[in-house]
Amino acid sequence: ELLQNGLFDDDYVSLHLFLETLNVKDAVEKDRxxxxxxERVPAMPRPAAQWKVLPALTNALExxxxxxxxxxxxxxxAKDGLSEEDMQSQVVPTVVKLFANTDRSMRI
Length: 108
Hints:
Blueprint: H1 11-20, H2 27-40, H3 46-62, H4 71-81, H5 84-99, H6 104-107
């Protein structure tokens, strides 16, 4: 009942709630979410993007919980708000693992 309050009916809050339950969402919901996430990244606070959204995206991509649609918001966050050092430690290992992936949609 508390979450139905208008205070919590916000894109930023719904984004965080979705990320918390990402593992139990089906593929259609995830694809829809990742497609919208790319548009939301520029308006997102940089610390939230780097320390909340980026780790969730890397985990989802590495462990098979996300399709190729999650790659675009990951790269957008990396391009817009990460230093070279953070890019090397947070994004590059995931992208290198994706190159070894045999899923054709991920490599295109």
